[in-house]
Amino acid sequence: MDFIKFKDKVKLNPYQPIYFLYGEEAYFIDQLSAFIVEQTVEPAMKDFNFMLLYGEDASYANLMDSVSRYPMMAEHQVVVLREAQRMKEFDMMHTYFAQPQSSTVFIIEYKNKIDKRLKHFKHLAKLDTAFESKKVRDYEIANWIMAYIKSQKGDISIQNAQLIAEHLGSDLNKVVNEIQKLTINLGPGAKITGDDIEKYIGISKDYNIFELQKAIGLRDHGRVIKITEHMAHNEKDFPLVMLVSILFNYFSKIYMFHFLKQSPPAEKMKALGLGSAFFLKEFEQASKNYPLDKCEKVLRLLQDFDLRSKGIGNPSGEKGGLVKELIIRMTECN
Fold this sequence. Notes:
Number of strands: 7
Strand order of the largest sheet: 2-3-4-1-5
Number of domains: 3
CATH topology of the largest domain: Rossmann fold
Oligomer: single chain
Radius of gyration: 25 Å
Largest sheet: 5 strands, parallel
Strand content: 5-15%
């Protein structure tokens, strides 16, 4: 069940004995937990009927004492167990899970991979009030950003959403924090531009890995040189090991595109992990500039520079010079 549907379900009947929020994406767990507390805790009674415990500090005895006590001057109390994966005696709670206190709303935040064979997991996961918080895949981040900004009454192009995604990665808490900087400064209903991203988040709209890989793919040598010079002089912001990883991923997709030329757009997007058909034209042009044999040479080159970026065969560690050398050799592959 997705995030929005789960929130809607909570609204209908929030006072449930157990909420089990688990998975690898902390953002959805944080948001849902806060939402459930908002729906179930009266602000005036929070000091009496709300308790927050942390798994690292919680013991079976004090947690059982907390969830088993009765609320004061109210029908329900709310107990939140944060970072449940850190609680050493968490598995001992299975007896409570089988017969929970009806006057307690027990919210369990379990942020990590979980062994789904465990007895207590099998019971908790079957609950209607269990929510698995899955990581948003890398190729879905740009679309997620667009949807989130739209939910905040703003607007952003797929290119600028991709720019944010490329630089911030898939940590949604980090992504949302940066987007909030934009919305606070621009106000509701604003269309977010590349200039806004550069000004308020600090991501250059002109000198970034997204623009570099596009310039390399299109063989825009002048643009490649400008971006490479900028990156070589700002090594801390553009570490070679990161550049190699991203470019290897990019050229792997170009290589794959050669085997998808007769496939329909939807199949190409799925195979390449693209969130929008907008980027297919770029890969089509890049595949013309880098036939299969050139792609293979570039991928081998990137593997070599991956080792050199880690000090193997490059003991001096002069990464800025390596960035220039790598890009020049990539664009000159023939």
